[in-house]
Every structure is written in structure tokens, then in C-alpha cells.
Design brief:
716 residues; alpha/beta; Luciferase, domain 3; Rossmann fold; 8-stranded mixed sheet; 36% helix; 22% strand
Length: 716
């Protein structure tokens, strides 16, 4: 998503000819239409109270059905069964698409850094029937390879079509799959593979070098299968150097299976499909045991919520499949017969960092109708658009401002006003060109992984012309907890429980959150139902701590998040138990709440608020938005030798503190919640650095350890 703001070059196409007339029309028609289109809001009951077992609390179920959803249709009780049945049902429809690599080159930037640039062609597709055939061939190839039927396999690779095919192929032989982030550090990688005793590992070729370096530490690996289309010229030499493993390409395994098919050994509903290692925001990652029934239940439930989901849709897949959010999303697409086109964050848009100049980005070529995103990416979309609007200025900016305000009023009044005749006018004048950034055909977006700010949600609604289904879930709930519905025009909420789940609030007296609170009950969010996973692998103590079964046998997961239920049954996440710190004078500060408010400053790319309980104020580590800070410095006449020096300048610190004070006031933060001191850090936090998760959530403990000295100095 780097340089995404440059995609807004479409604004340069605005001319002045006829613009004055368009402006007059744009002002006059909305006034005329407003009284006709904006009706009184209707309150729709989305969740209703329910009596459930277990610990006392205030429980809600989805209003769509009395019984919890378990399967999308009869017989689809496992991922293996679901995959086979869906592939036969949609046999001739396109399923998995991959862009053809035409060429790649290494370019050198002015500062000497080297970057890879790629020229990509159109998407090349395989059908549902072809995907099933390839998965069956891969499964048979595993048998020929000699994979131990009693051991597990792992996928350690970036998201791509072969990832999904391998995933389904393993299930054809009832093999539990361990999913590992491609960006995982060495210690966590060794821990994950050894703890689960993985014998067969599937990876990108680029990961082979990393694996070769730690091969002596990996005690159970026997077979390594690599994706061969990205194999470099000297790849065979590297493969030959790993003498203690059998190393084969993915195509070789498919060929082995095609030559000698083996009968499937299919899993059961309660069998463990996936051991998914969490991104490890604290310490080493934990392996969550997800059953086949868990994945199927979440997928079945979400298909009831996304409107008109079907084979006419196209989904852009680029988030990590090792994350439960993307895995659940692609499982939903499988249920509905949707086409899935694969991309990456580095090639997503026309000016993404890895795209060669003149080459179209993934979104421009695919023209998706559906897309999943984490809030950090949507924030960058918003910032990129606003930056280009400011640069254009003049009439284009006036048109944008008027159109945005009118659409905002319509959205907050009624959805008919938002998507009716007035909408068509503003789309024609302003928003149609903005939408080309993501292909121009997005009709629905799924958002998860972290809380989405109300400002960004509204911005995407208006500028991209699409409702956002904001989801709430965890790896431990197989992403299945709550999901906002397409016709819910509120912000800051995550919707009612999915039809596969109950959500219960349990009072947390110590934190001051009680189900008896008025006007809305509050408490710790506890999720129960068919999506609740089996627990943590090889960690019974931690499992007992956060999982509980009630008297009926239903499993409940204690999330540690604090929520409240609105009268219509929708959940709002308002706090987190672990993020609350009691200051010296007795005030409680919620670090996550403060960070969510301060991140709205245009100067902020990333922020971590820190509070020492022995002091009466908090501090913050800040990664500034590079271009925004440099633009301010230029306008302010600040002289500096490089960006590192700029971040150390007292003037820069003072300017960002001023901005934080403004957004804190707008968010109605208390005085003690505004960081008294900040430290500007020039280097961005990335999953590769180990400072944020794959979903770009901060890893608080790792940040505290990495910047221990900086935090201490701010309290001196």
C-alpha cells in the first residue's frame, strides 16, 4: 500500500471547462432532492436477548435465526466436503486467478537502495473443477512422497492460488495444516514447526534460504515442497545443499499424484483442520486448534449476511491466508461460488511500490466487486485521496468538499438518500474517478483485524460507494463473532452476533463495567457457539484460562475485550482489559482507546501509548507520516540534513504534539490521556520488523522491549 496516494493522479484529469455549471447543478439539485429522499431513520432489531448457559451475563443472538448456523447446506460438514461439493456445483465457473509475470527487474533508487519492479499481465484462471483436480493430485502426490499419515504439514508462504490448493489437498488425506506467517521471525518459526512436529512443509522458494539456515534446529521436517514458478536460476543448487530433507517442487508433487491417484482419507467434523499460530502480540505465538466444523460454521454464517453474494462476484485476495480473517473470507467465497483473484499489497494499485511504471495494479486489472481490508489499509486509502484533493485545490477541491458533505448528510439520514438520484449525480461529477483506485466496481467491503475509525468508515462509504461489513472475531473464534450488516449506517460498531454465535457480556467489576449499566449493558465480551475453537495446541493451562464449557456442553471463549450492546442488539468494542493501566493518582487510562483517537492525526502513521503506573501521565512512541512531516518542515522553513534529524528536531516534536492535542480535544479525551511527552521514530513498523502483526496491529510488548531506553528517558 506504499505510495497509494499517488494513485489519485486521476484528479489531474479535472479541467475547468464546464466545471462552474457542474458546481451550480451540484449545489442546486441536492437541495431540491433532500426533502424527498431523506426520510426518518428506522430502527431495525438486529440482535435479540437470549437465555444461555454458563456464567451469568447479558447474552444476544442474531435475529435472523433461532438456531445456531453450522453448515451452508446438508452434507457440507467439513472443509473437504465443502470444497468438493462446491467445486462440483460450480464446476465450469472460474475460481482461482493469478496474474501472468511478464518480466521483472531490479532498480536502484537515488539513495542506493535496490527495489524489484514487476511487469504483470492479465489474470489467468482455473475453474472450480480444475481446482478440485489439482487438489486431488496434490493429495495423491503426498502419499507418493511418503508423508507420514500421523504427522502434520505446514504452509509457510505468501497468499496465492497454490496456497489454497495445497490447503485443500492436505484435507483430502485428513492432514492437519499448520499455518505460519511468511513474515514470522526465526525463533517463532522454529518454535511453531517443532511444537507441532511438522513433517512436510510447503513454502515459497524465497523461504528455502531461511529454512536452510535453521535446518539444524528443525527436528521433525522430512519433506519440503516449494512453489516452483518463482525459482531462481541457481535454485537447484540451493535445493541440492539441503541434504537432510526431500525437496520437491509443487508441480512435481501434482505430477506424482496425477500419475498414480490415491483414494482420499476424509476428515471428520470435529477433527482439527488447522493449527493457526497467532501473530504473537505478546511473547511466542500460540497455536489455536481450529476444527473443520469451526471453519464451515463461520463461512456459512457470513454468507447469510453479505448481500447477493454469488458467482457474479469477483474477490481480490491479498491479505495473509495464515491470518484467520483472510482464511475465513476465502472460505466464504468458496461457499458462494465467487471467483478469487490473487494479488499482493506491493502490487495492489497502479503505483504500488513493486509495480513497474506503466503496468496496471491488481485492482485495476481484476476490477473486484468484493474486497477485504484491515483498518490500516483503509486509512491509507483515505489519506491518499485527501492528499491528492489538497494538492489539486481550487474548483476540484470545492466540488469534492460539497459532494462529500452532501453524501455524508445523506448517509447519516437514510441509505436511500445515500444511494439514490443525488448519489448518481455526485458519482458522475466527483467520486467515479476516485473509485478507479480499487478498480471501480467495489460493491461491498469486509473489514476486520482491528477497530475501524468512524471517519474512515464514512470516507470509504462515500468515496468508494460501498457499504462496509465490519467484523469482530479472533483466531480463537475462527473469526466468527459479530458482523455489521450492509444496511446499518452507523459507525463504531461491529454489528450483531453472526448466526453461528452467541455473544454474552460478563460484568468486570474491577474495571467498572457492569451488565447493569445504563443506558447500555457493558462487560467483557464472551463468545459461544459453533465457531469456538478447540483450544491452544499443547497448552492446556492457557486453554482452561480462557475457554469454558457450560452445562449444555457449549464452549465459550473469554476475549478480554470490553464491549457494550446497543438497543438494536449491535455490539460496540470500547476497551480491552490488558490495555488498561491505573496511573499514580488513581485514574484509569485505556491505551487502545487513546491510540485509536490519536491515530486520526494526519501526522501519525503509527503510535503506541505507554503508561507507567508510578507516574501520573502517559507518553507515546510515534512514527510520523513521512511525507506529511516533510511537507510541514518545508512550509515552516525548517532546515535539516536528513529525515532522521528532522524527527529529532524540537520544532517537529512540538508540531506533532500540537496536532495530537487537537485530535484529543475533538475526541473528548481527558487531560491525563494526552501524552505529555512523545518520541518520534523515523523507521516504519512492519511485520518484518516484528513490531506489528500481519494485520498491522502493534505488538505492545515487543515495542516496549525494543524502545525501552526511549520510554525510560521520557519519564526522567
Amino acid at each position: 500500500m506504499e505510495k497509494l496516494d499517488a494513485d489519485m493522479s486521476v484528479w489531474n484529469s479535472y479541467g475547468t471547462r464546464g466545471a462552474l455549471g457542474a458546481l451550480l447543478v451540484a449545489v442546486a439539485i441536492p437541495i431540491l432532492l433532500s426533502t424527498m429522499l431523506l426520510g426518518k431513520k428506522k430502527v431495525k432489531q438486529r440482535g435479540i436477548p437470549v437465555q444461555v448457559g454458563g456464567e451469568a451475563g447479558y447474552a444476544i443472538r442474531n435475529s435472523r435465526s433461532r438456531e445456531l448456523v453450522e453448515i451452508p447446506w446438508k452434507g457440507a460438514t467439513t472443509m473437504a466436503a465443502l470444497f468438493e461439493q462446491s467445486c462440483k456445483k460450480h464446476a465450469q465457473q472460474r475460481f482461482l486467478g493469478t496474474r501472468k509475470l511478464i518480466s521483472k527487474e531490479i532498480v536502484t533508487a537515488g539513495d542506493g537502495r535496490k527495489f524489484e519492479k514487476v511487469h504483470l499481465g492479465d489474470y489467468e484462471w482455473i475453474t472450480y473443477r480444475e481446482a478440485l483436480d489439482r487438489a486431488c493430485n496434490f493429495a495423491s502426490g503426498l502419499v507418493r512422497l511418503g508423508h507420514n499419515v500421523d504427522s502434520r504439514a505446514a504452509i509457510f508462504a505468501d497468499t496465492r492460488a497454490e496456497w489454497f490448493i495445497a490447503f485443500q489437498g492436505f484435507f483430502r488425506q485428513d492432514i492437519t495444516v499448520v499455518t505460519i506467517y511468511a513474515s514470522l521471525g526465526e525463533d517463532a518459526l522454529v518454535h511453531s514447526l517443532n511444537e507441532t512436529q511438522v513433517s512436510t512443509l510447503v513454502c515459497d522458494f524465497k523461504q528455502l534460504k531461511k529454512l536452510a539456515a535453521i535446518s539444524s534446529k528443525l527436528t521433525t521436517i522430512q519433506n519440503v515442497i516449494y512453489f516452483d514458478d518463482d525459482e531462481p536460476e541457481n535454485g537447484s543448487k540451493l535445493c541440492g545443499s539441503i541434504s537432510n530433507w526431500i525437496v520437491k517442487s509443487f508441480s512435481e508433487i501434482e505430477k506424482l499424484g496425477k500419475e498414480r491417484p490415491s483414494p482420499p482419507s476424509l476428515p471428520s467434523k470435529n477433527g482439527v483442520a488447522v493449527i493457526m499460530y497467532t501473530s504473537g502480540s505478546t511473547g511466542l505465538p500460540k497455536g489455536v486448534m481450529i476444527t473443520h466444523g469451526n471453519i464451515v460454521a463461520t463461512a456459512a454464517a457470513v454468507t447469510t449476511v453479505v448481500p447477493k453474494l454469488g458467482s457474479d462476484d469477483v474477490y481480490l485476495a491479498y491479505l495473509p491466508l495464515a491470518h484467520v480473517f483472510e482464511l475465513a473470507a476465502e472460505s466464504v467465497m468458496l461457499v458462494a461460488g465467487v471467483a478469487i483473484g490473487y494479488g499482493s499489497t506491493l502490487t495492489l494499485t497502479d503505483t504500488s511500490s513493486k509495480i513497474k511504471k506503466g503496468t496496471k495494479g491488481d485492482a485495476s486489472v481484476l476490477k473486484p466487486t468484493l474486497m477485504a481490508a484491515v483498518p490500516a489499509i483503509l486509512d491509507r486509502v483515505r489519506d491518499g485521496v485527501l492528499k491528492k484533493v489538497e494538492e489539486k485545490g481550487g474548483l476540484a477541491k470545492n466540488l469534492f468538499d460539497i459532494g462529500y458533505k452532501r453524501r455524508l448528510a445523506a448517509v447519516e439520514g437514510s441509505w436511500f438518500g445515500a444511494w439514490g438520484l443525488e448519489s448518481m449525480l455526485w458519482d458522475l461529477i466527483v467520486f467515479k474517478k476516485i473509485r478507479t483506485v480499487l478498480g471501480g466496481h467495489i460493491r461491498f467491503m469486509l473489514c476486520g483485524g482491528a477497530p475501524l475509525s468512524g471517519d474512515t468508515q464514512r470516507f470509504i462509504n462515500i468515496c468508494m460507494g460501498a457499504p462496509i461489513g465490519q467484523g469482530y472475531g479472533l483466531t480463537e473464534t475462527c473469526a466468527g463473532a459479530a458482523f455489521s450488516e450492509w444496511d446499518d449506517n452507523s459507525v463504531g460498531r461491529v454489528g450483531p452476533p453472526l448466526p453461528c454465535s452467541y455473544i454474552k457480556l460478563v460484568s468486570w467489576e474491577e474495571g467498572g463495567y457492569k451488565i447493569s449499566d445504563k443506558p447500555m449493558p457493558q462487560g467483557e465480551v464472551v463468545v459461544g457457539g459453533t465457531s469456538i475453537t478447540a483450544g491452544y495446541f499443547n497448552n492446556e493451562e492457557k486453554t482452561k484460562e480462557v475457554y469454558q464449557a457450560d452445562e449444555t456442553g457449549m464452549r465459550w471463549f473469554y476475549t478480554g475485550d470490553i464491549g457494550r450492546f446497543h438497543p438494536d442488539g449491535c455490539l460496540e468494542i470500547i476497551d480491552r482489559k490488558k490495555d488498561i493501566v491505573k496511573l499514580q493518582h488513581g485514574e484509569y487510562i485505556s491505551l487502545g482507546k487513546v491510540e485509536a483517537a490519536l491515530i486520526s492525526s494526519s501526522y501519525i502513521d503509527s503510535i503506541m501509548v505507554y503508561a507507567d503506573p508510578f507516574h501520573n501521565y502517559c507518553v507515546a512512541l510515534v512514527v510520523p507520516a513521512h511525507q506529511v512531516l516533510e511537507k510541514w518542515a518545508k512550509e515552516a522553513g525548517i532546515n535539516y540534513s536528513d529525515y532522521v534529524e528532522l524527527c529529532d528536531r524540537t520544532e517537529a516534536v512540538a508540531e506533532i504534539k500540537r496536532s495530537l492535542s487537537e485530535v484529543a480535544k475533538a475526541a473528548k479525551l481527558d487531560k491525563f490521556e494526552l501524552p505529555a511527552k512523545i518520541k518520534l521514530l523515523p523507521e516504519p513498523w512492519t511485520p518484518e520488523s516484528g513490531l506489528v502483526t500481519a494485520a498491522l496491529k502493534i505488538k505492545r510488548e515487543q515495542l516496549k522491549a525494543r524502545f525501552k531506553d526511549e520510554l525510560q528517558k521520557m519519564y526522567e
